[in-house]
Design a protein that fits this description.
Strand content of chain B: under 5%
Oligomer: heterodimer
Order of helices and strands of chain A: HHHHHHHEE
Radius of gyration of chain A: 21 Å
Low-confidence stretches of chain B: none
Strand content of chain A: 5-15%
Largest sheet of chain B: none
Number of strands of chain A: 2
Distance between the termini of chain A: 57 Å
Structural class of chain B: mainly alpha
Strand order of the largest sheet of chain A: 1-2
Mean pLDDT of chain B: 84
Helix content of chain B: 55-70%
Chain lengths: 176, 107
């Protein structure tokens, strides 16, 4: 994108887009420490960068496409570092890219593959690192589960300590 | 908006159960939860610490826990995204204008 002259009208448009025109501007969420708004923004940034990347590829500007691919990768990495379930948005973006490439004959799969590592490796790395660190590193001595079991536990904290309510992908055999 | 966010007192359920306790744990221990460290008081101590890091870093700079750090950061984030969308919209409008001046069909 070219540099734009910033005037009052542009500033007003920006603030309107960020607030009144934004369907995700919910005061209760924005003015809190919730991760919902950062999730919206990082996924939004990543989606815009992917869109610009595909446009650049369609126009034959591979250098610019690689720049946008890095930016998309960094944005979606930040999204996954906010909430583990944001991996779903990342996978949705990959599916969307595949759908666009299938429909748009001006973009070749080879071009996408050649730059895909720039928006795939970092997000996956941050997710895997979180999974390895995960609950058991702190809770294994508490719930008698070996560290690194790669299982998700639904836990409830009460006055007596922790109670395991269930686990995934394999059900927990009994309560504790 | 920034003044409004700065004056906010944490009142939302999840703020009090894990988002702020996770940040407080980082501030008190300068480390992520570990078996060697004191037990976290958070309901979800294993949640990713991306948001908690914002509060942690702001609190380190301030020298005390800044409850509203993420709310302030949210305002900056949402405005930065508005800026991106506005830039894209204006760039498209300008390129369409140039195309129509040259006789091409606008996108």
């Amino acid at each position: 994108m070219n540099a734009l002259q910033v005037g009052w009208a542009f500033c007003a448009l920006t603030i309107l887009i960020a607030t009144a025109l934004s369907p995700t501007y919910v005061t209760r969420l924005v003015l809190s420490s919730y991760a919902d708004l950062p999730t919206t923004i990082t996924v939004g940034f990543a989606s815009a960068m992917i869109w610009l990347m595909l446009n650049a590829l369609s126009a034959g500007d591979k250098s610019l496409a690689h720049t946008y691919a890095w930016q998309a990768g960094l944005a979606i990495t930040a999204a996954i570092a906010l909430k583990q379930v944001n991996l779903v948005f990342f996978l949705s973006l990959l599916i969307a890219i595949a759908a666009v490439v299938l429909r748009d004959k001006s973009i070749s799969f080879r071009d996408i593959i050649s730059l895909s590592h720039k928006f795939i490796i970092l997000p996956l790395a941050i997710y895997v690192i979180w999974r390895i660190y995960d609950v058991p590193s702190e809770l294994s001595p508490v719930i008698d589960v070996p560290s690194g079991t790669k299982k998700s536990y639904l836990l409830r904290r009460d006055k007596e300590g922790w109670t395991i309510k269930g686990s995934w992908p394999h059900p927990y055999p009994g309560g504790k | 908006m920034l003044f409004l966010a700065a004056a906010m007192i944490p009142s939302q359920w999840d703020d009090l159960t894990h988002w702020l306790p996770n940040a407080r744990y980082l501030l008190e221990n300068d480390a992520f939860p570990d078996a060697e460290l004191p037990k976290s008081q958070s309901t979800f101590p294993a949640y990713p610490y991306g948001v908690a890091l914002i509060t942690y870093l702001a609190s380190k700079l301030a020298g005390h826990m800044v409850d509203s750090a993420t709310a302030l950061f949210n305002i900056l984030l949402v405005v930065s995204f508005g800026l991106l969308v506005a830039r894209i919209a204006i760039t498209i409008a300008q390129s369409d204008e140039v195309a129509s001046r040259n006789g091409a069909t606008p996108r």
